[in-house]
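Annex B. Sample input.
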Amino acid sequence: MLPRLLAAITVLAAAAVVLVASWPQLLGLHRELYVAQVVSLRGAVVVAAGVLLVLCLLLATARRARRFAASLAVLALAGGLLNLAVLAGRGAGSAEFEAAGPDSVTVLAWNTLGEAPGPEVLADLVAESGADVVALPETTLGYAEEVAALLTERGVAMRALGASFDQVAKANSTSLLIAERLGDYRVDETVGSTSVLPSVVAVPVDGEGPAIGAVHPVAPVPAYMQHWRDDLAWVAGACTADDTILAGDFNSTLDHWAGLGVDGGDLGVCSDAAVAAGSGAVGTWPTDAPPLLGSAIDHVVAGPAWRVTGARVVEGYDDAGSDHRPVVAQLTPAR
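Annex B, continued. Sample output.
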């Protein structure tokens, strides 16, 4: 009797784990400690479910454990398929971009891990991608200005803006490059910032044009969980205008944003460009994990005034020094 009771309890507990790991939003647990970490690695969950399925099938060869092992195998299969379905819906990667129009804006986001890639490397990436906007978490204004100078030599005029909490660590700075063809921009000091690591939002001096931001919510580690939740709420609040563009290291996936969208948006009125382009399941962190097993925490998001005409995770810079992959998105006015 006792073995059967323990087996039933184990199966019920396993079913709860599968539910939480597959769709924590249903229970409102998607921004809770440990659950937030697990759901950010859906690709790894699929692999773990596959390994567990094989082990359960092997265990099922033992007559006494057959029913118990079969129940666990069904749960492992269900968990793997549910997470795989979510990833498939977000897209495993597409490099296709529509032809850019005269009003299209190309946005690049790259957490440089404290400027690990040299300025020349970043200048190469900006030139290669044709970026008009570059969001650079963990990057000082001085480094961004150096990159801007290198781009000027190549005939690409960009203005560097930034925010910094202190000069103790480069991670405490966030910078933004904006092409001069988009007009003259200034830092908007009225919108505030994320709490632990800085974010910067720039607005056009003449009032004509989109607000553009480089954002960096803190990572969801045990000591900063509430700061992380507050940061995501701040980012959602920073995207209230239809033409807003935000990019950077969001330290969160689409799963963590549930409940923060407005009028069909994922964060405020903004929606994720990678998902719209079929690349939303490609991991941007860490670079030493295969892209489909990593976590998609770097994003470009934009309001409904923009149509996504291409987005991809750049995989050719994994050895450049940063532990993040760059993200590039092309946005075209929706009307």
